[in-house]
Amino acid sequence: MCSSWVQFLIRRDKKFVFRFASLQSESGKRILNSIGLSNNDLKTIVYFKEKTFFVESSAVLEILKDLGGIWKVSVIFQLIPKVVRDKIYRYIAKRRYKLFGIRSSCLLPTPENEKRFLP
What we know:
By secondary structure, this protein is mainly alpha-helical. It is 42% helix and 7% strand. It has a two-stranded antiparallel sheet. The longest helix has 13 residues, at 82-94.
């Protein structure tokens, strides 16, 4: 799902706002360390923005808001308590392969998208 999520964002991020890092990469580890998180047991999305970080459902909603356009409508879901949103997020994340299928290969950035990925 992460790969599909990244591809979804790349296709819609015409202003090149978003940059990506694997949680296991050196950049990912450094960013997580700077905000006091460990990647050892972290199996979620983390969105780092203006010295603030968001995880799980809050990360997804913040990203969609920042993506702009019709995606801003998703802020309505912030009315749902975070505890409930995160349970739904974890439910989907746990069953992502069943819901969205499994890929046989990982995303490799194209030369034009390579600058979107942190080393």
